[in-house]
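Please check this chain.
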Amino acid sequence: MKDIIIKNGLIFDPLNDIDGEKKEIHIKDGVVVDKVNGDAKVIDASGMIVMPGGVDIHSHIAGAKVNAGRIFRPDDKPPESNRGKTKITRSGTGFAVPSTYLTGYLYAKLGYTTVVEPAMPLLEARHTHEEFLEIPIIDKCAFPLFGNNWFVMKYIKDKDYDKLAGYVAWILEATKGYAVKIVNPGGVENWAWGKNCESLDDHVFHFEVTPREIIEGLAKANELLELPHTIHVHGNNLGHPGNYTHSIDTFKVTEKITPKKGRKSNFHFTHCQFNAYAGTNWGNFGSGAAEIAKYVNSQDHITLDMGQVVFTKYATTTMTADGPWEFALHHLGGMSNWGNKPGIKWINGQVEGESGSGIVPYFFTPKTGVNAIQWAIGLELMLLIKNPWQIFMTTDHPNGGPFTCYPQVIRWLMDRKSRDDMLTNVCSAKASSQTQLKDIDRELTLNEIAIISRAGTAKCLGMSDRGHLGVGAIGDVALYNLDPNKLEGHAIEKAFSNAAYTIKDGQIVVKDGEIVASPMGNTLVSKGKIKESIYEAVLDDVKAHWREHYSVNFNNYAIGDHYTPKIKVINH
């Protein structure tokens, strides 16, 4: 692997305040350096833009739920998704949920080099890491699920935040996880009894704690541990009309919790589009994006990702640790384009004492008023929130649509004409009447695209070694054939669909949109700062109750080192 010099490209590196400047990038031994001396591979980037490798903050790419989605959808293999093997790549298939190797290849072709799997059931962590071992090129990390965990709720009920922090630290170590994920706090546990949590102050059966207390308690524990990322929250009432008010109430829970030194935020709210709905029913369904944006624009303790809906030729496979929502979606129609028979397919899963999940195939269609409004809401959020460091690009893959649609999303964000064409010629008129999208002039710049897809996401995740091209950063770089003076919708989408070059750890892995190397990326983990005495006390508690809670032996629970042969620890 030669050292690399990238010349003549226009650099977009927001973390280093570089906005379209012609500079050289030097990479030695997989790391960005000030200057390479001696023999090096020179890439002439004339006519190209250069950005750090993409960092996706929320994408369901691995684990038992994802694999169940693959098995559940034998139809999710249209001919154009099938890829034959080459001298470098393995074969693969899958549109909404690509197979493991194909996932790595497709991300690399888009210029992405780091991806977060945001929902790992603790008991099924082995499955997640086994799939990580078969997703090439990109670095991966996983967020363990804490929001409906029995031990978590016990410590919150006792208001023992030190032990709660100790439990989180142990789970991150045992499952080789990265951050605290909370899904429908309390609601998934209540779902085991056929109920849900519809307000922040509903009680969880048998524990008598509330969603508000779960969020606040885990936020406090997160800051005690000084973890690199904030708590990562999937709110209650996802998908229900009128839920934007609940979302804003949820944002307020952590307003007075002081983040640890190194970041302003203490709360990340994921796929916000699905929680930004106005109206009282599906008949008067509308957008609450403006109200959410107004709140976020007045606060600096919160970040979001958009959860954009896209319209595709084929159905997607919705999957989430929010079992109650998937049950509701199953009754709302499921794969409604196949015979208009509601609830054709549905999977519900519960993971003992820890979490749950659900899977429902679904087809978003632009002529359906609700779907058209959902499409507009994601774009509204991104365009109405003023600070691009507070909102990031996602589709909640595969829920709003596959990650392979990111170039389309970038086109809509950068080119108002493309949005207006969708509103006028493709979508139901309700997308215009029930949202503000038609009145928004803003078009994101290339610098802002670099923020919402790499610099901002890396900063939010606390990954200081990536998301930028400064000296000391890992050598993850994406080059695109795009003229900043000719930012027309089709050209934007074409450029971001196939990177001219993707460089991972100083190795060229994509050239002219084709995979030319397939190294194995790292698994990223974090470790909390906790007193050994607290850690040991938590282990004593857990072991004392283990046989009552679990069907596996305690000694078989933690993930062995052989599951993560290439591991990298990221600290705050």
Notes: Confidence is low (pLDDT under 50) at residues 335-342. The chain has 17 helices and 26 strands.
